[in-house]
Amino acid sequence: MVYSGLMSLQSHLRQQGILISFSGKFSQIIIEELGEAVKKYLETEEHPKTDIFNVFSVFIEQTQNIKNYCESKIAAGSYDTIANSCIVIIGKDENGHYVSSGNIIENKDAKKLATRIENLIPLDKTSLKKLYKEKIKQELPPDSLGAGVGLIDIARKARKPLEYTVNMIDEQFSFFTLKVIV
């Protein structure tokens, strides 16, 4: 049976300015393929190379962060719940292009993530660059998934402060969203 609501869904996405959307498990292959699609789509609209690079970079960083978070939860037993909740959209509104992503997170991780973002929001470009350089020089903890610069780099490429929400679902999980205007 064909889902008859696709046309209305497509119309709704257009009205909201959503250019590209994906919902489901993020794998490296999916991230790479969607990333290429994003670049090609933006190139057809003849955007400056810097704008294309920034949207692409923010998209890659956001999806990689989600994929890495999901993978970190394999042993915890919450992997399927978290991995099946992933979504990313790229859109355009009066502020320019934006990349918005979301996924379920464990409540025990919510405060730490919110604090990291809250600490970035008031920083200007110069302060973000300085923080980025400091983090790059730090030694990585043994259980680290990276240098911890992903959110900093996203904030550096953003034209406006990062926007996020954490909505509690139940005692174990919340839904986290991040919107970046590029």
Account of the protein in words:
The chain is of the alpha+beta class and about 180 residues long. It has a single domain, classed as Histidine kinase-like ATPase, C-terminal domain (Heat Shock Protein 90), CATH 3.30.565.10. The chain has seven helices and five strands, in the order αβαααββαααββ. It has a five-stranded antiparallel β-sheet with strand order 1-2-3-5-4. A hairpin with a 2-residue loop joins β2 (about 85-95) and β3 (about 95-105). The longest helix has 24 residues, at about 50-70. The N and C termini lie far apart (about 40 Å). The mean pLDDT is about 90.
Name the features.
single chain, alpha+beta, Heat Shock Protein 90, 5-stranded antiparallel sheet
Largest pleated sheet: 5 strands, antiparallel
Share of helix among residues? 40-55%
Q: In terms of per-residue confidence, which ranges show pLDDT below 50 for 5 or more consecutive residues?
A: none
> What's the pLDDT, averaged over the residues?
91
Backbone structural class: alpha+beta
CATH homologous superfamily heading: Histidine kinase-like ATPase, C-terminal domain
Task: Provide a short characterization of the protein structure.
This protein has 182 residues and is an alpha+beta fold.
